Amino acid sequence: MLYKHFKQIILPALLLAALLIPTVGQRPQDEFQNFRQRRRGQSAQQQEQVGTSYGEYTFVRTIYDSPARGYGRRGYGYGYGGGTWTTDYPEADNNFIVGLREWAGTNLKIAPRPEQIAIMDDRIFDYPIIYFVEPGFLELSDEQAARLREYVARGGFMFFDDFWGVYEWENLETQLKKIWPEGGYTPKDLPLSHPIFHSYLDVQEVVQVPNIYNAMRGETSEKGGIVPHYMGVEDKNGRIVCFISFNCDLGDAWEWINDSRYPVKYGLPAYKLGINVVIYAMSH
Question: How far lies 276's CA from each of 56, 195, 202, 222, 261, in Å?
Answer without folding.
Answer: 16, 9, 8, 25, 25
